[in-house]
């Protein structure tokens, strides 16, 4: 709702004078004094809610279209950028390979992608729709082009679902029903009758409520015990963005108070703080800071910038007029209108003169009375139903029970953003020939580019069904597929998420019934996480540890790599039986007992207690430890040679160590593999340091270059596809040359940059 009249404040006339505001200042002040306290705070009176007629009039109250027009433009611009990035136009040919044996995960199994060239056409329509929204050109058609293609792409691939992609689709749907082209649009130039016209208040009500829901429900979801106790996103506290906080607080308190506590408080309060005049400036600061940090912490595309673009919606709707009135007069032809002269619109209900804003109250042309018509009542009904539905959906999971996997909601519309973090320790796919009984194993993720199938029962069912259709090509008849997937959620024990004894191909699954082969989360073992931290804190840097929990009657089959020396199993709770496969020996372990397991061999750990067992693997990566020790010795030798304290001549295999730092040939010519790895590591560290110490201009140039080549490839591949649809495929040699030209990259390869950054921060997620 409006917090006050749409055009309150100083107005600027068409010739740049402030005479209208000065002329009517006294009358406005007197009228403002007659407003009730509720009207001053909320923008409407108690009487506006006293009857259905008054509510319809309120929701259709004439409101300045300026803020809506600016948001429409910003949203369209961000979606134009999003098409080539998170929607995937730049790598569409890798995502939709014609004829390739690929397993896909649509919302409905009958949904399939079109042939590749036609998918490029779908994305072109999406791009043109986004561009049309931004420019306000053929606005309604552009919105329809956007939402039809966007939701098709969205439903086509559940592995790409997230809350912010869902939000984009919702905003696109809302804009389709709104009058977003009444301000700063090409439609306004073509049709003067709609230019600078009022829009009904429900246009703002929907958008503001939607953004409030995004913040508030996300805050409610963060009241989860794992978030409150600091287990959901604990790794974030180690990011360099939190260094200012770590200067005054230990990293544990930064994690608990800043990352988790700050995120919870902001989400719970942001919607309220943005609504009220007194708190809005503070909300702008904290919300902007929050989203700017998120843009650096996570790879979430345009979401942070979209949320920044929604914040001005909570300001007075006339803010763009007052803002752009301060620009030089010679820019007025290309800037939005600053005149307070608004046209009446049939989309609004003009009940009383006082419903109009500012000096418009004295304009008879706008003061005519009108009664709510059917379209006004339908708009009010839609607004109320839509808001109720948006509050209901995040808690509708008692309906869609088949989707719930250790979270209380679907991946998409739950607004449970960043509440759960997962790590996978062990994934095994076993197939069995239904005719011969032969057993084999598949590489996890074979025939698919996605990794999210490991966490969701509906995707696992789709994946198993797909594999059952593909394996007969490889002489596997009527295959049975079994999955043994171990997951840790929010730093708990690694445990099975699905029953490994169930053939998923024949398993029953329904979106409306609980998943029968989903193993329960062992929440009773959650208090062990405090003990985990104590145990890990007592270990040296070379010792690794993995915590395991398993169900009675099941066993873990594991292989210890030869690189892992001194590997042992220690039971924390329950009773297990350890079978050394090659030795054909069994050992029973009780609570607190430990045994070593041989490297380079398989072993099985059976849970034989009545309750779930808990145990941990403790091991040292001896190969890595030896390599680091050799690196240390090589570095010390290199330093002695460079400062002249090394008097002995170096053997030939160590000669590359004395080459200049920028000599890449030394790495190539190194005959000793350890020396080659050492020099390669040094070169990477040098490049990382150079990137970190780069100036602002160099960073911007690198960023712009990366975006340029990404966008360039997307549009060149689209042009090739459109040519193919129009005139047919060219000769293969020509097509190969065109694709090679589209694949051209900048001086630095993007993949190498990502590898460098992962080594730099120590977290693949960052």
From TrEMBL:
TM helices/strands, residue ranges: 120-153, 165-184, 253-276
Intracellular or extracellular location(s): Endoplasmic reticulum membrane
One Pfam family matching this protein: VKGC_lumenal_dom
InterPro entries on file: HTTM-like, HTTM_dom, RmlC_Cupin_sf, VKG_COase, VKGC_lumenal_dom
Reaction catalyzed: 4-carboxy-L-glutamyl-[protein] + 2,3-epoxyphylloquinone + H2O + H(+) = phylloquinol + L-glutamyl-[protein] + CO2 + O2
GO MF assignments: gamma-glutamyl carboxylase activity; vitamin binding
Top enzyme category: lyase
GO cellular component entries: endoplasmic reticulum membrane
EC number(s) per entry: 4.1.1.90
Biased composition (Basic and acidic residues): 747-766
Protein name: Vitamin K-dependent gamma-carboxylase
Organism: Gouania willdenowi (Blunt-snouted clingfish)
Lineage, opening ranks: Eukaryota, Metazoa, Chordata, Craniata, Vertebrata
């Amino acid at each position: 709702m409006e917090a006050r009249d749409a055009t309150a404040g100083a107005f600027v006339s068409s010739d740049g004078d402030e005479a209208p505001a000065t002329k009517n200042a006294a009358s406005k002040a007197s009228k403002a004094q007659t407003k009730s306290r509720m009207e001053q705070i909320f923008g409407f009176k108690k009487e506006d809610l006293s009857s259905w007629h008054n509510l319809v009039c309120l929701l259709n109250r004439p409101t300045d279209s300026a803020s809506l027009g600016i948001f429409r433009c910003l949203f369209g611009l961000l979606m134009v950028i999003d098409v080539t990035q998170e929607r995937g136009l730049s790598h569409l040919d890798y995502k939709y390979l014609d004829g390739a044996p690929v397993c896909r995960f649509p919302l409905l199994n009958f949904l399939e992608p079109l042939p590749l060239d036609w998918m490029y056409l779908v994305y072109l329509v999406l791009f043109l729709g986004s561009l049309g929204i931004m420019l306000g050109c053929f606005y309604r058609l552009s919105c329809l082009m956007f939402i039809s293609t966007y939701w098709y792409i969205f439903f086509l691939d559940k592995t790409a679902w997230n809350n912010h992609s869902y939000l984009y689709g919702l905003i696109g749907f809302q804009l389709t029903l709104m009058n977003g082209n009444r301000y700063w649009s090409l439609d306004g130039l073509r049709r003067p009758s709609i230019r600078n016209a009022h829009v009904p208040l429900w246009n703002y009500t929907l958008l503001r409520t939607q953004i409030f829901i995004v913040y508030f429900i996300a805050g409610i979801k963060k009241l989860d015990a794992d978030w409150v106790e600091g287990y959901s996103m604990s790794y974030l506290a180690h990011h360099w963005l939190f260094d200012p906080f770590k200067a005054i607080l230990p990293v544990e308190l930064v994690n608990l108070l800043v990352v988790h506590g700050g995120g919870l408080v902001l989400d719970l309060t942001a919607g309220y703080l943005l609504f009220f005049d007194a708190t809005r400036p503070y909300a702008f600061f904290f919300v902007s800071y929050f989203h700017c940090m998120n843009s650096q912490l996570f790879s979430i595309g345009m979401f942070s910038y979209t949320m920044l673009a929604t914040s001005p919606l909570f300001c007075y709707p006339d803010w763009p007029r007052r803002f752009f009135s301060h620009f030089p007069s010679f820019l007025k032809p290309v800037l939005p209108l600053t005149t307070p002269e608004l046209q009446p619109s049939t989309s609004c209900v003009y009940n009383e003169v006082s419903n109009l804003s500012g000096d418009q109250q004295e304009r008879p042309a706008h003061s005519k009375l009108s009664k709510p018509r059917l379209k006004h009542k339908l708009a009010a009904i839609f607004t109320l139903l839509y808001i109720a539905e948006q509050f209901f959906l995040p808690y509708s999971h008692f309906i869609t029970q088949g989707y719930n996997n250790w979270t209380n909601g679907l991946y998409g519309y739950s607004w449970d953003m960043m509440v759960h973090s997962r790590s996978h320790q062990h994934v095994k796919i076993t197939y069995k020939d239904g005719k011969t009984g032969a057993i084999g194993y598949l590489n996890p993720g074979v025939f698919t580019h996605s990794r999210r199938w490991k966490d969701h029962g509906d995707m696992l069912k789709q994946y198993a069904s797909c594999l059952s259709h593909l394996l007969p090509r490889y002489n596997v008849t009527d295959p049975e597929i079994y999955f043994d997937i171990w997951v840790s959620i929010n730093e708990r024990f690694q445990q099975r998420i699905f029953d490994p004894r169930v053939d998923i191909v024949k398993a029953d699954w329904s979106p409306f019934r609980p998943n029968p082969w989903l193993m329960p989360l062992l929440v009773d073992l959650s208090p062990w996480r405090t003990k985990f931290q104590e145990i890990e804190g007592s270990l040296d840097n070379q010792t690794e540890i993995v915590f395991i929990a398993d169900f009675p009657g099941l066993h873990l089959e594991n292989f210890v790599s030869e690189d892992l020396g001194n590997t042992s199993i220690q039971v924390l709770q329950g009773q297990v039986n350890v079978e050394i496969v090659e030795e054909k020996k069994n050992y029973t372990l009780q609570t607190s007992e430990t045994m070593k397991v041989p490297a380079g061999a398989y072993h099985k750990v059976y849970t034989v207690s009545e309750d779930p067992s808990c145990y941990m693997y403790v091991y040292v990566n001896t190969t890595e430890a030896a390599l680091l020790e050799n690196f240390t010795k090589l570095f010390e030798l290199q330093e002695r040679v460079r400062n002249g304290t090394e008097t002995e001549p170096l053997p030939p295999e160590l000669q590359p160590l004395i080459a200049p730092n920028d000599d890449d040939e030394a790495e190539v010519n190194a005959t000793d593999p350890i020396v080659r790895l050492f020099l390669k590591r040094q070169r990477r560290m040098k490049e990382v340091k150079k990137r970190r110490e780069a100036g602002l201009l160099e960073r911007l140039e690198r960023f712009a270059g990366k975006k340029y080549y990404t966008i360039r490839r997307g549009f060149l591949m689209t042009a090739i596809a459109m040519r193919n649809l129009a005139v047919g495929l060219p000769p293969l040699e020509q097509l190969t040359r065109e694709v090679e030209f589209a694949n051209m990259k900048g001086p630095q390869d993007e993949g190498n940059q990502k590898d460098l950054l992962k080594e730099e921060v120590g977290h693949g997620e960052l």
